[in-house]
Structures are given as structure tokens and as C-alpha cells.
């Protein structure tokens, strides 16, 4: 999206700037760029840009919203230019733009935010969902014009059709004359005399709609999914906004997600670890057979390639990593105890309360730390 600069960059402050630093940066720039000080039109544009950036960043809520959605490349940045950005945060525009005084009714619809909860398996394999979303749709009765069918808009009586009114304001720079967008017609220069009975002149109606969404395989908890064009309807033939879905994924009782790999603990018995075994284990794709080699140590990792989560951005999948945990039996029956005591005797390993053995020690490995 051409022409959009980072708001922090506009004010010349770092992303972690305090409210105080933002205020000081704005004061300094405003003093330099104020239309009373300079008559250069490009400076005036800059002044508007700086003011818009300040209005957003000085409000903690708007700043948070901007930090979340207002950066990260053209694909994520949902605003056409700084004026659109300003309007996304303030509703209808009071922000002057570099264009003729009369502005068109054409507006892109606002973005809409909703959330969706997925099971672990749905996140792994993707799912089709109908997500109930509240949004503004173009009014059928007036086709979005806001006027009763058969009546047309007439010239705005407040601004005489120019779309602007002069305004005198007191500010930190003294008294300032500014041209403000007409509050009655919103700068369009036309006024609706007989408002549409259905939308009361708004041109759009608030509705709740199930929006079909294809959730791709491999999404993760906390991710935002953008559905282009599924936001609020535009006005005056403008394009719709986007829908942003905040994704929540239920945790799995077995698998822990590490990037696109999955991790789980595989519990085996002491005897299985010593003698080896063929084990059936649960994976995302159903039951798989895993070979436990004789003499497997507790903490050993068995890697099942391609049995992890699908990569969201490319082909293929992560791995499933099974960490072996050797279970020590706590429920020995008499015969089993005798067998183990016999084994200790064969191996010359002192066991029980009365025989003292020397403990073998070493530094912990990275995994044991
Ligand atoms: Zn209507
Ligand atoms: Zn007007």
C-alpha cells in the first residue's frame, strides 16, 4: 500500500516510546510544521500526518490496536492511506486530505474482528467453519445511498455544497483558522432530505451473518487470520473491509506444540526399556508402531518424521518427538521382587536398606538440566 508510513516513524520516536516522549516529539514537530508558521503545502500535509499519528499514538487503546494491526507489511496493513487509517480509528473523517475540498462518498468498509475456537485436530488439519460475525451490510432499500427510494440527495445547506466549513480554534499556537470537513454531509457536499426508513440514512445496516471461513491446516493458538473482503461493506461503491479472526486452539491432552513439531512423553516399563519392544503409539494420523530398542535409556528421544503439525506456509509437516520415560515398578509382587533380587545378586549390585552401594555420578546433559 503506497504512501503509508509507520506512525512511529512519522513522529520520529521508537516503538517503545513513553507517552511523554510521544507528546514531546509531537510538540516539537507541530511547532516546526504548523500552517501558521509555514505556508508550504507539503509542510501542511506533513503537519496533518503528524497530527493524525499523534492522535492515535497518544491514546493507549488506539495505540494498542495500531501496534496489533497497523504494521507487518502490506498484507496485514488494512488501511489505504493515512486518512483511511485515521478514519478507522475515529469513524467518519474530520481529517483533511490532499484532494479537492469536496470528497466522494466512496469509502472502504471498516475491518471487523471476531474470534474462533478450534480443537487441536481442527488446527492440525484445517476445517471449514461458519463464523457468526456482526457487521455492516449495504442497505437493500436505498442501495446504500441513504435516501428514501425515489428521493435524491440535494445540495448540503450547511456548507452550500463545498463540503467544508471554516473553523476558528484556539490551540497551543494561538488562534488558528482551519477549513473543517462539513459535519452535516461529511465533506460530500450533499444532504439527504428524506432518510431511508430502513437504515435511517446510514446506507448500511448492522446484521449478524455466518461467514464461511476455510481455516488452513497448521494454524496455532493466538494467530490472527485475515479474511479479505469479509468486513463491513464500503460506502458509495467502496470496497468492503477485511475480517480478522483471532484463533484459539484447545490444548491436546497428549501433544505439546513446539513450532510445527509435536512433543510427547512415551512411558515404558523398566523391562521393556531393557529388553526392547514394539509399541503402538497415538499420532495425529492414528495409531503408529514404534520400535523401542533394547537398552533404551530414560530421556532418549524417538523421532517420528513428518508426524507433527503441517507447515502453514509451505508443504510438509513437522516431526513427532517422543521422549522415553522409564517407569520404575512400585507394585512388585513377591515373585517379581525375588526375580529382581536375584538379578541384583548376579550383577553384584547391592540393594535394600542394609547394603551400601556407591552412587555413580556425572554432569547433567543439556536435556537433564
Ligand atoms: Zn437504506
Ligand atoms: Zn455539507
How would you describe this protein?
This protein is of the alpha+beta class and 369 residues long. The protein folds into 3 domains: 1-98, Orthogonal Bundle (Helix Hairpins); 100-153 and 192-250, HSP40/DNAj peptide-binding domain (Sandwich); 256-363, HSP40/DNAj peptide-binding domain. The chain is built from 8 helices and 15 strands. The protein has a 4-stranded mixed beta sheet with strand order 10-11-15-14. Helix 2 (19-33) runs antiparallel to helix 3 (41-57) and helix 3 (41-57) runs parallel beside helix 5 (82-90). The longest helix is centred in the N-terminal third of the chain and has 17 residues, at 41-57. The model is unreliable at 71-81 and 87-101 (pLDDT under 50). The structure holds zinc ion (2 copies).
How many domains make up the coordinates? 3
Query: In percent, how helical is the residue content?
Result: 10-25%
> Which CATH C-level class of the largest domain is it?
Mainly Beta
The fourth-level CATH homologous superfamily of the largest domain is: Urease metallochaperone UreE, N-terminal domain
The CA-CA distance between the termini, in Å, is 48 Å
Ligands: zinc ion
Largest sheet: 4 strands, mixed
The CATH topology of the largest domain comes to: HSP40/DNAj peptide-binding domain
Amino acid at each position: 500500500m503506497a504512501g503509508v508510513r509507520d506512525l512511529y516513524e512519522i513522529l520520529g520516536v521508537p516503538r517503545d516510546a513513553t507517552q511523554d516522549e510521544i507528546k514531546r516529539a509531537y510538540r516539537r514537530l507541530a511547532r516546526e510544521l504548523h500552517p501558521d508558521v509555514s505556508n508550504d503545502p507539503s509542510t501542511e500535509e506533513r503537519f496533518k500526518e503528524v497530527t493524525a499519528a499523534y492522535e492515535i499514538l497518544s491514546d493507549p487503546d488506539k495505540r494498542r490496536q495500531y501496534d496489533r494491526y497497523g504494521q507487518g507489511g502490506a498484507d496485514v496493513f488494512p488501511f489505504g492511506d493515512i486518512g483511511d487509517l485515521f478514519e478507522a480509528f475515529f469513524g467518519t473523517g474530520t481529517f483533511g486530505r490532499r484532494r479537492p475540498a469536496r470528497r466522494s462518498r466512496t469509502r472502504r468498509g471498516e475491518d471487523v474482528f471476531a474470534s474462533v475456537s478450534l480443537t487441536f485436530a481442527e488446527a492440525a488439519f484445517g476445517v471449514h467453519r461458519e463464523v457468526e460475525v456482526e457487521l455492516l451490510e449495504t442497505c437493500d432499500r436505498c442501495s446504500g445511498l441513504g435516501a428514501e427510494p425515489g428521493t435524491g440527495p440535494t445540495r448540503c445547506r450547511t456548507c452550500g455544497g463545498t463540503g467544508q466549513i471554516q473553523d476558528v480554534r484556539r490551540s497551543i499556537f494561538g488562534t488558528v483558522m482551519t477549513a473543517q470537513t462539513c459535519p452535516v454531509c461529511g465533506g460530500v457536499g450533499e444532504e439527504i432530505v428524506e432518510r431511508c426508513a430502513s437504515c435511517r440514512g446510514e446506507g448500511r445496516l448492522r446484521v449478524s451473518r455466518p461467514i464461511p471461513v476455510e481455516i488452513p491446516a497448521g494454524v496455532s493458538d493466538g494467530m490472527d487470520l485475515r479474511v479479505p473482503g469479509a468486513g463491513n461493506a464500503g460506502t458509495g461503491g467502496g470496497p468492503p473491509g477485511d475480517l480478522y479472526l483471532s484463533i484459539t486452539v484447545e490444548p491436546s491432552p497428549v501433544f505439546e506444540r513446539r513450532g510445527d513439531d509435536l512433543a510427547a512423553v512415551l512411558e515404558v516399563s523398566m523391562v521393556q526399556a531393557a529388553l526392547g519392544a514394539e509399541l503402538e503409539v497415538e499420532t495425529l494420523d492414528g495409531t503408529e508402531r514404534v520400535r523401542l530398542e533394547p537398552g533404551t535409556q530414560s530421556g532418549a528421544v524417538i523421532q517420528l518424521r513428518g508426524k507433527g503439525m503441517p507447515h502453514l506456509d509451505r508443504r510438509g509437516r513437522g516431526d513427532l518427538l517422543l521422549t522415553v520415560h522409564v517407569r520404575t515398578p512400585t507394585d512388585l509382587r513377591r515373585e517379581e521382587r525375588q526375580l529382581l533380587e536375584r538379578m541384583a545378586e548376579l550383577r553384584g549390585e547391592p540393594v535394600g536398606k542394609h547394603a551400601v552401594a556407591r552412587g555413580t555420578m556425572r554432569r547433567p546433559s543439556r536435556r537433564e538440566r
